[in-house]
Each structure stands twice: as structure tokens, then as C-alpha cells.
């Protein structure tokens, strides 16, 4: 798989240090995963649901070992290559996703699909879904991911029969 031609994501953090001085951190993302299927970056992981400004600089130094953080608020970018067919999966998160490059198809397990273009926003409420790139161009979305309660259908979570969704933990 060739490397993504999209520019490296850039993260700019503004905060106040312990002496009350403003700080600007400007860098590329501190963590990237590059596998044969897609490329993903983590730009920020916040372990607390409610932001703590006095911890912002410390949070920015976190070096994650994975992309998914179902128990933390996180910022991530995902680059999806041309002609990519994603697997149906779910996360126990609310994902606020904005497509920044290209065009993607959001697919649900019952066959429903929705084309998502640059500037479109998707709010995924802990559901089973897949991302497909049916074009010959790379696509990227950026997402803010927030922990969620598990979805229950007839008292069972999405990973239990009869649903058996794949819980993404990459």
C-alpha cells in the first residue's frame, strides 16, 4: 500500500502553564499507526471526561500505544486508501467525525449507506458501522471521540448474539 499523499496532521494546542503564562504547542501528531489497510493518527488523549485546563500540557505529552480509547476523550485522524472496504465494527463511543479530504461511504449492517463528502459531519452514537472508500483518491476524516455507555438491544450489548458486532480495539 503506498503512503498517504495527504499532508501530516498538525496539532496546535493553546494552554496556560503553572506560572499563568500562555503556551502554544505546534507540532504534528505524536502517534501514528500505519498498516496495510489504513493510516491513523492520535492527536490528543484526555483521560478525564471534563477537561482540566491545568492538565492540558501534560495530556499533550501522552504517547498512546493504540488508536482506540473507548474510556477517554480523544482526537484522531484516519486516512483511508482508495478502493477500501472496511469491516463492520462498533465502539463504545460517540464519534464526532468531519470529512476533510475525499469522499467516503458510511455503511450500516442492514445495508443502509450514506455518502459523506468534505465538510460533512457524522455523529456516530455507539453503533455498528463500516467506512468504505469507493473512489480512486485517498480520504481523511478527523474525529473527536467521547466515551459512551454500551448500546443494548433487548438487554444485550452489540457484541452479544444475535448481533455479534466486532468491537474495534486497534
Q: Please bin the fraction of helical residues.
A: under 10%
What's the SSE pattern?
EEEEHEEEEEEEEEE
Strand tally: 14
Q: What is the arithmetic mean of pLDDT?
A: 87
Radius of gyration: 17 Å
Low-confidence segments: none
Protein name: Cupin 2 conserved barrel domain-containing protein
Structure write-up:
By secondary structure, the protein is mainly beta. Helices cover 3% and strands 45% of the residues. It is built from one helix and 14 strands. The strands form four sheets. The protein has a six-stranded antiparallel beta sheet with strand order 3-4-5-12-7-10. A four-stranded antiparallel beta sheet has the order 6-11-8-9, with no helix packed on it. A two-stranded antiparallel ribbon has the order 1-2. Strand 1 and strand 2 (22-28) form a beta hairpin. The radius of gyration is 17 Å and the shape is globular. The chain starts with 9 loop residues before the first strand and ends in a 13-residue tail after the last strand. The mean pLDDT is 87. This is Cupin 2 conserved barrel domain-containing protein. It comes from Kwoniella europaea PYCC6329.
Amino acid at each position: 500500500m503506498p503512503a498517504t499523499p495527504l499532508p501530516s496532521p498538525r496539532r496546535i494546542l493553546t494552554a496556560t502553564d503553572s506560572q499563568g503564562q500562555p503556551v502554544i504547542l505546534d507540532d504534528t501528531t505524536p502517534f501514528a499507526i500505519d498498516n496495510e489497510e489504513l493510516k491513523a493518527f492520535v492527536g490528543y488523549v484526555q483521560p478525564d471526561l471534563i477537561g482540566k485546563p491545568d492538565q492540558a500540557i501534560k495530556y499533550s505529552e501522552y504517547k498512546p500505544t493504540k488508536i482506540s480509547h473507548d474510556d477517554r476523550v480523544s482526537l484522531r485522524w484516519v486516512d483511508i486508501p482508495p478502493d477500501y472496504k472496511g469491516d463492520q465494527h462498533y465502539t463504545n463511543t460517540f464519534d464526532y467525525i468531519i470529512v476533510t479530504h475525499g469522499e467516503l461511504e458510511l455503511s450500516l449492517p442492514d445495508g443502509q449507506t450514506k455518502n459523506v463528502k468534505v465538510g460533512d459531519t457524522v455523529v456516530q452514537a455507539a453503533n455498528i458501522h463500516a467506512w468504505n472508500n469507493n473512489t480512486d483518491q485517498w480520504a481523511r476524516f478527523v474525529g473527536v471521540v467521547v466515551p459512551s455507555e454500551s448500546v443494548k438491544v433487548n438487554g444485550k450489548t452489540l457484541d452479544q448474539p444475535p448481533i455479534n458486532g466486532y468491537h474495534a480495539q486497534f
